[in-house]
Amino acid sequence: INGQTRIVCRTEGAVISVAATLFNFLNGKGGAKTDFLNWMEFSRLCQYARADAQTAQKLWAAADKDQSGTLSKKEFAQFCNIPAIWPTVWRISDQLRRNEFKLQMQVAERLFIYLDKNLDKKLDMAEFSKLCKGAGVCNVKKAQKLWVESDTDQNGSLTIHEFFHFVRRKGNWKVCLKIHEGLKTLAEQKTKDKVRIVSTALFNYLDGHKKVKGSRKDNVLTPNEFLYLCDQVNTDRKVAERYFRAVDKDGTGSLDREEFFYFCANDQIWRVVVNIVNKLEDPSVKAAGIY
Q1: Do residues 68 and 35 touch, judged by C-beta distance below 8 A?
Q2: What gap in Å lies between CA 111 and CA 113, rounded to an integer?
Q3: Distance between CA atoms of 56 and 157, rounded to whole angstroms?
């Protein structure tokens, strides 16, 4: 028993089902969809399980039996079948089957990005208070009470994990969803298709760029490739590095296409990336009439 949820027995059929659910969800999070999971994709699972970086590395070593640097479906199923791992992977897969849980992850991440104005990958009380105000909680004491309940490690800031659990809490979810739907961010003002076209064109331009040292086509953007983009608009190097750390939500040290998409959709970034892409004369951008 885990809280009020009964963990399903670790039968062969249950393991196959859980492994398939998780594999399909994770596959493609760290690049193109393949028949294997890479470290970036596996690390997402560890994040959902709230495992720290050191634990995640140990779990990866235990899962990658042949030390190939990727996990086959068989290896991943064997990993899920480990008795100590089973309760956690079952719980995550069970939650993933619920459409509301998927939506909650998306809403929490997008609200977090919207509120995190200084891009330090955490929310302070001032940033959190904006959410409370939007929810109609104008009473300072009530807002502070919500803050204390959410800041589980009591370090004075909220991580994405703490904020996710706040959003999911009974009584908070419907309000957070309503705020999310009402936000007039640039990602919502511009069609998703246009943002996707621009971010894809720019991503393809940077990925493996010949002027970036050590750059190669690998379907992720390295810090150097991202910094090259920032150099085009004369961004201070320290500020650019700070941006990279903020955009790298999964902490893998590189940016996948989805992370870069949300970077481009930021209302402070959109006009800049559009101007850069227009200079590339990308046919897909021209066809979409994005100027």
Answers
A1: no
A2: 5
A3: 23
Note the pLDDT tens digit of each residue in 38-70: 999 999 899 888 888 899 999 999 999 999 999
Let me know: does 40 contact 30? Beta carbons within 8 Å: yes
Query: What's the pTM?
Result: 0.40
Amino acid (one-letter) located at 279:
K
Tokens found for residue 191? 């069609």
Reference 29, options 18, 15, 45; nearest CA is 45
In this structure, what are the phi and psi dihedrals at residue 253, rounded to the nearest 5 degrees?
A: 85, 10
Between CA 103 and CA 144, with CA 248 as vertex, the angle to 5 degrees is: 60
8 Å CB contact between 121 and 180: no
SS3 137: coil
CA-nearest of 234, 239, 214 to 224 is 214
Residue 176 neighbours by CB distance under 10 Å: 21
HSE (CB half, 13 Å, CA atoms) of 254?
22
Give the CA distances from residue 256 to residues 2, 250, 251, 290, in Å, rounded to whole numbers and listed in that order. 34, 10, 11, 23
Angle of CA points 94, 99, 249, to nearest 5° = 85
H or E element: which one contains 145? helix 140-150
pLDDT bucket at 194, cuts 50 / 70 / 90: confident
